[in-house]
Amino acid sequence: MTAKLSVFYSYFMDRQTASSSSESSERAPYEIQIQGQLDDRWGEWFNGVEITIQDANSRFPITTLNCPAIDQARLRGILKKIWDLNLSLISVRRIADSTQDE
Question: Is residue 101 part of a domain?
Fold first, then answer.
């Protein structure tokens, strides 16, 4: 369980090092899924992110942290808190910004 998060964290940090400074300061919304159930009280501890629960009555609920447009430093801080709580990370997904012109 912890090894998977460690591998992800190493991959994530390698990508951060490789990205340019302008890209790393870019803000974007993210969706982070973790195994287990966290109630709304944790939202403030995770810097005010919105928390939703999928399959709350099942044996394996999934908590989704919906992060507004955040920079890479804040994302790293949230991932560190997940690590500190020894939670199982399922996914981190950058949400496409529909307001960006292509």
Answer: no
